[in-house]
Amino acid sequence: MKVQAQASGQAADRSAVIEMHDITRIYHMGDQEIRAVDGATFSVAAGEFIAIMGPSGSGKSTLMNLIGCLDTPSSGRYSLGGRDVSHLDDDALASIRNERIGFIFQSFNLLPRLTALENVELPLVYGRVPAAERRERATALLDTVGLAARASHRPDQLSGGQRQRVAIARALAREPALLLADEPTGNLDSETSVEIMELFDRLNEQGHTIAMVTHDPEIAARAHRTMHMKDGSIVDEQHNGR
């Protein structure tokens, strides 16, 4: 049974960052139609923290790609920060991604030859922020994630948790409307995973809107609410009492 997920009560008076209405994403393999996302309807208010769970093949990764403007829906309406992005072309989607979304990946996706500071600076380089300003902002962001002392270290000189902190600092560089995290603790041990989730908690408390895909119920429980997917549909929503 499909459910229509709604913004949490505590956030009802805040503007929505994500609004999806009857979103589908259909792929064709020969004469077979695959409905990877099938009628997703939900919203996420500014300052909310949501988790998306589901078994392999449930559609959660496809939904994450749609939220992140890495793909476009076959039908339905998606509004990000009040702008309809459902049918934008590739250039417009790239601009939205660069300006409005901070991505955090399981594999960190840091450039190995750059220092931690230079990795954090990258989005600001692409945004043509002057050198002195981007160095100042990147330094402050590394301090925010507790890595100021490691600014000159390359990724291979950092632990997995430290690399994820650099990735989080990089995601924050453009002051995005949305932080989008895809299995952010998937490559970390349990102790380090808790530390990274405590950092997410602090960022959320500071007002950052976060959407996260995870397979781990304990990680998902850190969010305000968890949406469960099956066969392309949102089938259940759990409020986590935060």
Which key features would you list for this structure?
242 residues; alpha/beta; Rossmann fold; six-stranded mixed beta sheet; four-stranded antiparallel beta sheet; 31% helix; globular
Looking at the structure, the CATH topology is Rossmann fold
Q: Radius of gyration over alpha carbons? A: 18 Å
> Strand count, sense and closure of the main sheet?
6 strands, mixed
Structural class: alpha/beta
CATH-level-2 architecture: 3-Layer(aba) Sandwich
| SSE string, helices as H and strands as E | EEEHEEHEHHHEHEHEE
CATH H-tier superfamily: P-loop containing nucleotide triphosphate hydrolases
Number of strands: 10
Strand content: 25-35%
Strand order of the largest sheet: 6-7-8-3-9-10
CATH class term = Alpha Beta
Q: Which regions have little confidence, pLDDT < 50, spanning 5+ residues? A: 6-13
Helix residue percentage: 25-40%
Shape: globular
If helices are DSSP runs of H or I spanning 4 or more residues, what is the number of helices?
7
Mean residue pLDDT: 92
Number of domains: 1
Q: How would you explain this protein's 3D organization?
A:
This protein has helices at 60-67, 90-100, 116-126, 131-144, 160-171, 190-205, 217-220, and strands spanning 16-29, 32-45, 49-53, 75-80, 83-84, 101-105, 178-182, 210-213, 225-230, 233-239. It has 242 residues and is an alpha/beta fold. It has a single domain (9-239), classed as Rossmann fold, CATH 3.40.50.300. A six-stranded mixed sheet has the order 6-7-8-3-9-10. Strand 1 and strand 2 form a beta hairpin. The radius of gyration is 18 Å and the shape is globular. The model is unreliable at 6-13 (pLDDT under 50).
